[in-house]
Specification:
Layout (H helix, E strand, L loop, with lengths): L8 H18 L3 H16 L2 H5 L2 E4 L10 H9 L3 E5 L10 E4 L7 E3 L5 E3 L3 E3 L6 E4 L3 E5 L2 E5 L5 H6 L7 E5 L20 E4 L2 E2 L1
Parallel strand pairs: 1-2, 1-7, 7-10, 10-11
Antiparallel strand pairs: 2-3, 3-6, 4-5, 8-9, 11-12
Length: about 200
């Protein structure tokens, strides 16, 4: 007989929040999301952490997420190394691979409807200076930025493998900000969050 794990009240509450947050984000018209994404990328590219970074890790967008591709393009144009995640089903590892272009021909379909680079030149996470992190919700609690992800734990596992010096910055629409939400032991805090109308 298989053991049954009862979800904690925190997990149940966060699952409900995820549904609400995704619905709120989906309600932003596509053309508005594109304009807000462009504004956010410009703000993120102006950050001192971006200027100082040699190696940057950034996600490729899915569904109604902030589209960070203008930020990736800016990093590549400046000669920075850029890595993107490779998600593996039923694996605790979320490796990352270097990319040199955003040309669609350089990518192939991966899990969860995400794109993965065809040339998977693996990068040691310890080499990353700055990570731009996707999220569903965020809040400033007890002086720390916290995020709600999709619940699979891929990013928390990945963020835990970074060097202590690596900056972790969330990027999100202002509509995704909350006053507070339950924090669990595995949640990894962020150093900052950038929105289209400001930082933090």
């Amino acid at each position: 007989m298989n053991a049954h794990i009862t979800p904690s009240p925190e997990s149940i509450r966060k699952a409900a929040l995820r549904a609400e947050l995704e619905a709120s984000r989906n309600a932003i018209p596509p053309e508005t999301r594109a304009a807000l994404s462009a504004a956010l990328c410009a703000r993120a590219a102006a950050l001192p952490a971006f200027a100082a970074a040699t190696t940057i890790h950034c996600y490729l967008p899915m569904r109604s997420e902030v589209d960070p591709r203008p930020l990736i393009a800016a990093a590549l144009a400046l000669g920075k190394r850029v890595a993107v995640p490779i998600f593996l089903r039923k694996s605790e590892e979320t490796p990352c691979a270097l990319i040199t272009s955003l040309d669609p021909s350089e990518f192939e379909p991966g899990v969860f409807g995400l794109s993965h680079p065809r040339n998977r030149a693996r990068l040691d996470p310890a080499e990353i200076d700055l990570v731009f992190v996707p999220l569903l919700g965020f809040a400033r609690m007890n002086g720390v930025w916290q995020r709600i992800g999709y619940g699979a734990g891929y990013y928390d596992t990945f963020l835990a493998r970074l060097a202590p010096r690596t900056r972790k910055i969330g990027i999100a629409f202002a509509e995704q900000r909350l006053d507070a939400f339950p924090i669990e032991a595995h949640d990894i805090a962020l150093d900052d969050v950038v929105t289209p109308d400001g930082t933090g």
